[in-house]
Amino acid sequence: MFTLNPTLQPHTDKAHDMRPPCMPSVAVIIPCLNEAQTIAKVIADVRSALPESRIYVYDNNSTDQTADIASAAGAVVRKEVRRGKGRTLKKAFGEVEADIFVTLDGDDTYDASRLPEMIERLQQDHLDMLVGDRLQNRSSHDRTGHYLGNRLFSKMISTLFDMPVMDPFSGMRVMSRRFIKSFPSIASGFEVEVELTIHAFDLGAAIAEIPVDYRLRPEDSHSKLRTLRDGTKIFFKLFWLYQLKKPLQFYGYASLLLLILSCITFAIPLIEFITTEKVSHFPTLIVSMGGFVLTLLTFAIGLISENINSHSREIKRFIFRSSQRN
Fold first, then answer.
1. pLDDT per residue over 70-120, tens digit each?
2. CA distances from 114 to 83, 118, 137, 308 (A)
3. What residues contact 123, with CB distance under 8 A and at least 6 apart?
4. Distance CA 231, CA 190 (A)
5. Known Pfam families for this protein (predicted)?
């Protein structure tokens, strides 16, 4: 049976606290945009699975009755008028107080009955984030484009950041308080899940994944994710995070590319000089010399950025590890 570890010191939003004294608090955050068809069921499922949790529905300026239905179902409803899942979660993480944070999409595609098991594992294994992995069950996916995109970006993240992840875009996550409160999100949309994953890498946080089923959306319920548009945004966000978190590698590869191009360009006047003892391609020679200078500058930027980033990361990790887990 699921039990919360009572040794943790609770952080709570007292106005909505339904727990017995000394029990850690659980906040379930459900970001929503036009989910009137499904939100009541999602809230009921969460209430059944986690009766002592506090459920927050963050309405992202819906044009239907999502907020009213969520309020009638017993959730605490708050609004974020600026569209975007990243903005919505950033506001929620800043406002809500709890020991354990759960994020869950409001489209009824996740099985909320798995949440007690996930919370228990988070505590038992001393994790900071446990992610519900949808991709191990391929038959549960209704859109091939989304599935292939998830696989592609999972491979990219694993390669670029040396951290094996199967489902970096899962909307079902259980996280510790210290992880959430240290999260400096700048994402505006669906790329917020990528930032959460990279944030774990940056802190050296303990994370894991657990297989979960992913249900089809109900009829007349449409995904807000656009494969091409959001995939492009995520792609550029990923490389921006790569140069930010691993600058020596990023600028090292860039300087290597510049060096190769400069050598190719320099070969033209060099071969001409060896052959004729004259150089008529002065513009090419100047460009190649400029390329060599740019190569050195780019590599220097990488070295300096890596040094700064390394010290900053150590400070963040020290503060993170010194704080209470939940």
1. 999 999 999 999 888 889 999 999 999 999 999 999 999 999 999 999 999
2. 29, 6, 15, 41
3. 4, 5, 100, 326
4. 9
5. Glycos_transf_2
Task: Return d(Cα 61, Cα 221) in angstroms, integer.
Answer: 17
Ranges 80-84, 229-233, 242-246: which has the least confidence? 229-233
Give the rounded percent of residues in the chain with a pLDDT score beyond 70. 84
Domain boundaries, the chain: 14-243, 247-322
Q: Whole-angstrom Cα distance, residue 210 to residue 135?
A: 10
- C-alpha 85/C-alpha 53 separation (Å) is 22
The residue behind tokens 């052959």 is: 275
- The SS3 of residue 76 is strand
pLDDT tens track for 198-226: 899 889 899 999 999 888 777 666 666 66
Identity at 51, one-letter amino acid code = P
Taking domain 14-243, whether its CATH number is 3.90.25.10 is answered by no
Lookup: tokens for 274:
């060896």
CB 284 within 8 A of CB 261: no
Contact 167, 132 (CB under 8 A): yes
Q: Half-sphere exposure of residue 110, counting CA atoms within 13 Å on the CB side? A: 28
Q: What is the pLDDT of residue 40?
A: 96
User: 3-state DSSP call for residue 62?
Assistant: coil
113 secondary structure, DSSP code: G
Span 116-126, average pLDDT:
95
What amino acid occupies position 217?
Answer: R
